[in-house]
Amino acid sequence: MRRKGFTLLELAIVLVVIGLLIALVMRGMALQSSAKVKRTAGDIRNIHTAVMVYYSRKGAYPGDTDADGFIDNDATAWDSLAYYSIAFKKPSPYGTDYKLDTAYVNSVNRNVIKVVVPYADARVEIDKLIDDGTTAAGALITRQDTLVYVIE
Ligand SMILES: [Ca+2]
After folding, report:
1. What pLDDT shows up at residue 68?
2. pTM, to two decimals
3. Distance, CA 15 to ligand 1 centroid (Å)?
4. 3-class SS of residue 150
5. Measured between alpha carbons, how far is 33 from 114 in angstroms, rounded to an integer?
6. How far apart are CA 82 and CA 87, in angstroms?
7. CA-CA distance, 99 to 73, in Å (whole number)?
8. How far is the CA of 125 from the centre of ligand 1 (A)?
């Protein structure tokens, strides 16, 4: 005679399978988030290098439209880098824009790369990869949800 419903063993197997699927999804999400952190850190390094290459060729910073040594125009900065095929603007892995700008850091104006990273833990991981691991100090700092990286 056929019984209706599941046996205890069948239920246990289903629960184990669900547990494994959840673990797989969580592992996938963790890998994806770590890939985004690594890509953002790499992008910041590459943009830094691009700006320094531009400076060594032109004797000025890209986007420094009034020639005072400070980047004042993000759009012009990226156009100049693209014009000389040094770097091309692309969005961050978080869908936000890398911006070239001047920021007041430790009581002085500095040329910086800015990018909004909306996750606090990701900002810390990026800081660990390219700076001192603290978002309050060093070459990479966090202002609200924006990473600010001092170029020089
Ligand atoms: Ca830092």
Report:
1. 96
2. 0.86
3. 44
4. strand
5. 20
6. 5
7. 9
8. 10
Tokens of 99: 């911006």
Distance 19 CA to ligand 1 centre (A): 38
CA distances from 41 to 17, 23, 38 (A): 36, 27, 5
Determine the distance separating the centroid of ligand 1 and the alpha carbon of 148, expressed in angstroms. Answer: 9
Closest CA to 75 of 89, 61, 87: 89
Q: How far is the CA of 147 from the centre of ligand 1 (A)?
A: 9
- DSSP, collapsed to helix, strand or coil, labels residue 38 as helix
Instruction: Look up residue 3 and give its DSSP letter.
Output: P
Three-state SS for 60-125 is CCCCCCCCCCCCCCHHHHHHHHHHCCCCCCCECCCCCECEEEEEEECCEEEEEEEEECCCHHHHHH
Asked if residues 62 and 54 have their Cβ atoms less than 8 Å apart, the reply is yes
Q: Tens-digit pLDDT profile for the chain (152 aa)? A: 566 788 999 999 999 999 999 999 999 999 999 999 999 999 999 999 999 999 999 999 999 999 999 999 999 999 999 999 999 999 999 999 999 999 999 999 999 999 999 999 999 999 999 999 999 999 999 999 999 999 98
